[in-house]
């Protein structure tokens, strides 16, 4: 389309003395009469006159013009620069541009210099182009100079800055470019000076490595191109008009033909054609110089700008741009790895497909890239997926034959998506595909009823719902179609007609499965209309309704009540025996406006509804149906409405009949000497199910059911032959009795004797459930366990909270035997492996569903027990058996166990830590019993315990001060456990549990420095001198644990034999400190270590440590300056002990200690001196290495300072413009390509940049690389 010469990036500004442009305004007629005014004046000599005015911002301008010294003039006063005017938005863009045009006509060089500096400042560059630079430097040299002067502190620039001001700046910046071109479109842009200079500048900036230059110039160039497209479009329209006028004039007869007019029109057409060619040259230069390179830029935002603007060009000037040569760039970029860019591609295409005329010209593009668009409906970015579905909807409207059945099916299933915008977009696509096409035979159909158009559409909806095989997601389907098809889904009259009316002759009736689906869709539509919010799992919650939505909601509720109050009894009568239909139909009354029963004189229909519910209760024993009936009665029995008495009487009659029947059946069932048959058991069970279902929602306290239920439970426990279902539902019903009784007692309206009675019943029932925990039937045990957990939680000490102290007699505290039974139940029935022996080929899917259901049941059981731990109903340490399963059953119960640990830590940090270490000890003992004491520490069992300890350690978080005491207590318990048992190898061997220290070392990183010293000192109380000398593999856990307590001590060295030496320990400081500072710090440190750090050590001071002899007492010393330390003290560690340990030893204690020490003193001294010499040699070597490193560092800094590379001389942040395939292979992030290089290196590398070749692999998926385009 566009064929003209390319403008070079290294364009040299034309130079000439002051241009003598016409003084008339630049806003001339669109016919182009004076369009070539300044063309012959354009400078082409390459030099400017030496008398050119201005430097930097252009000086010496005439006062009558709107600019003085490069500053905008308002009200005769100098105000601000062009950049500041656009930034602040204080003046209208039109007036700013008009002032600039006037300045350009007066002195185009100075005005153009202002415009150049405007673009430079918009990039965030603090430098400015001077008049000298403008006259004598090439474009590339100016850009290089600006790059060197780019004083960039943070990397932000106007287009990336946040805040309302900078958002407005972007809009004002784009508007300024558009208005500038529009105001100059009749003469100035054709002077071969202004546009050439601007295009050359923007092209050079867009190729810069500085992101700010590249981003800002690309946006400016693209907006400039858009403005030129508008100019070209106007020229094209004018050329067409001129051509028609010329043809009309030429076709006149010779006598009426005006030759002068023909010549004028011919001249006008010629000028318009020349202008069109020149505009095309400019557009071609921008497209090839900027777009071709920047649409694959490393920065996603730059790529998005290019794609967004090319979409605008194709929409505005479709004759020139809407062809395969330009569409291919959009198609290729749909494979971009950034969602922002893919989104711009889709929105650009939507504007094209929305116009049916333009959509017809996209057939080739659609056939080539249709598969890619379809695949983008599953894009990981939700916004992209939504726009892809909307684009396919527009494609579907333009042509039905483009999308295949497979393409449509890939969109259909998205109506069940949890992300609501995707589901709504897919619902619109489904509605347009299935419901928008009407044949001629459907035009005369009635509006409502079975034979209406909606009737067939509702059937189509039912067919689609059944074919999707997601019957439990009916609410999702209705919600997806609600915005586009609410009128169809609210046609409940047609739905009722399809369910109740007989089919016409020749009409195919709905099957039972289709009727069930229709009832479910109808219920979901009722819920959507009355609740006005998406179903669970889709949406963030209820939103505030507008006044219009509230009115619509009330109108729909009234219409639903009037319609279904009459139809619901008929529907229940027809489908009375169908469980699924009845369950859904019984949920409809909760959406009624019950006042309408009275105001609309619909009492007879209410009586019919109550009779049908009675029939349903009498015929059904299914739990779901019975609970639906109970819920319906609860909603209708509302004292606020006048129908309460009528419904209450019906409910009481129903319950009286059920309770009387149950009492008779129980008496017959429990008669002595007679063995109950199956029929009697079935009658008892069915009646018990009904009573239990109603007792869940209604208070049946006036019927004394506890006695009968307790007799059933006691008899079943004694005889052992009670059917399990009867036991389960009897427990459930008794549980409801206790809860309703508690609700009455909590209100305080009962007598004191009622509380005593309830306390007896509650404790008797809990004891009965505890006895059933030993039943042989698993279902019965699970029911007993669940009810026990609920009752223990309800009647715990928390029942007295919120001013209910009068309920204190009801508090129930489980004894240890009950706690042990509950824990054993969890270990036996929850922490079990999946049974894989029952897999079958035919029932594989059912087997998987049963496994999921069983896992869900076990999770509920575990959660019930964990709540007892969290609410401190049972001892926290019982959680040790739960916590030890964390790794093994992580996939099944990891979230529950982790939350339990978090909650227990909030209750009691220390007790939680003790429970964690207890769980590790239990696992360690289990491993010893399985592998023996000579186990391999690299075994999977031991490594698993270490990994569990690591996981436990991570749960303590990063704030060590909050968990300080808990971690210290954990180490204390772990050390005691490690030295608890004697060595099975006899004297001199390691303790049996010594390897536990290797596990305990996982928690050492959570100790602060002071606590490490304290724990280390506590460890040495259990050690003998011989242990410190051991280096065999069996002693490695002790060595590693001691090392873990020493690492990270901030250069506070600890002696290996500090537990043996009776000399005072010292701390060697890393740096010399003043005496004042030292004295100031000593009391704090002593207090922190001696009081808080060793509290738990004081408790154990008088306890006898098993296996090991008593460690000698240590005395802490004050900190000394390293220069003043004694040689014999320089190697020892520093420990701060409890205050009791500072007391001098009595002679008897010294004598006892002397007898306990088993090693000769001279041997100890010899070994100590040897260790001290080795330590001093290592320290000397470390000091020499450190001094060398410091000296080398100082030399490097001196060299750098000598070279003059100061902070002020650093280069701005620059970056690689393009990405290579190697960058992709290394996983480089495209949004952060910034590099910081010295100035000289930047200049050298900038001149050595390779040609900007197209490497689509850098920004596109692999799927597009091997495919040809058209």
From TrEMBL:
The source's superkingdom equals: Eukaryota
Stored InterPro entries:
ARM-type_fold, Cohesin_Scc3/SA, HEAT_SCC3-SA, SCD, STAG
Give the residue spans that cross the bilayer. none
Q: Pfam family of this protein, just one?
A: HEAT_SCC3-SA
Q: Which GO terms describe its cellular component?
A: chromatin; chromosome, centromeric region; cohesin complex; nucleus
Q: Give the start-end ranges of region Disordered.
A: 1-65, 1059-1090
What processes in GO biological process is this protein linked to? Answer: cell division; chromosome segregation; sister chromatid cohesion
State the compartments where it is located.
Nucleus; Chromosome; Chromosome, Centromere
Which is an annotated GO molecular function term of this record? chromatin binding
Q: In its keyword annotation, does this UniProt entry include Cytoplasm?
A: no
Domain (SCD): give its ranges.
291-376
Which controlled-vocabulary keywords does the entry list?
A: Cell cycle, Cell division, Chromosome, Chromosome partition, Coiled coil, Nucleus
Entry coiled-coil feature ranges: 232-285
Task: Please give the function described in this protein's UniProt entry.
Answer: Component of cohesin complex, a complex required for the cohesion of sister chromatids after DNA replication. The cohesin complex apparently forms a large proteinaceous ring within which sister chromatids can be trapped. At anaphase, the complex is cleaved and dissociates from chromatin, allowing sister chromatids to segregate.
Q: How does it assemble?
A: Part of the cohesin complex which is composed of a heterodimer between a SMC1 protein (SMC1A or SMC1B) and SMC3, which are attached via their hinge domain, and RAD21 which link them at their heads, and one STAG protein.
Q: Which family does it belong to?
A: Belongs to the SCC3 family.
Query: Which named protein is this?
Result: Cohesin subunit SA
Source organism per entry reads Betta splendens
Source organism phylogeny: Eukaryota, Metazoa, Chordata, Craniata, Vertebrata
